[in-house]
C-alpha cells in the first residue's frame, strides 16, 4: 500500500457490514482534524488482497504506518 503523506498514516481497514465502523468513524475524523496524521479508510471487501497482505484478521482494524512501514496495529 502506498499513500503519499507527510508524517504517519493511520489506515482504517473496514467493511460496510461491520457495525463498529459507525462508532469509530467520527473519532478518526476528529483525530485527523486535530493531529498531524493522515487517516485513510480502506474497504477490505473491495481490497481483499491488501487486507490479506497486512494479515488483517478482523474488522475494523487500525494500522499505523510510519515511512511506509506498519509500526502498530
From TrEMBL:
GO BP terms, alphabetized: cell redox homeostasis
Keyword Translocase included in the entry's annotation: no
GO molecular function, one term: protein-disulfide reductase activity
Keywords of this entry: Disulfide bond, Electron transport, Redox-active center, Transport
Domain Thioredoxin: 1-73
GO CC annotation, single: cytosol
Keyword Cell membrane: no
Matches recorded under PANTHER family: GEO12009P1 (PTHR45663)
Similarity-based family: Belongs to the thioredoxin family.
Name of the protein this chain belongs to: Thioredoxin domain-containing protein
Organism the protein comes from: Actinokineospora globicatena
Amino acid at each position: 500500500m502506498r499513500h503519499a503523506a507527510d508524517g504517519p498514516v493511520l489506515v482504517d481497514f473496514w467493511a460496510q457490514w461491520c457495525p463498529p465502523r459507525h462508532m469509530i468513524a467520527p473519532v478518526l475524523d476528529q483525530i485527523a482534524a486535530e493531529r498531524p496524521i493522515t487517516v485513510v479508510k480502506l474497504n477490505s471487501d473491495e481490497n481483499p488482497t491488501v487486507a490479506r497482505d497486512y494479515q488483517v484478521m478482523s474488522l475494523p482494524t487500525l494500522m499505523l504506518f510510519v515511512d511506509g512501514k506498519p509500526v502498530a496495529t
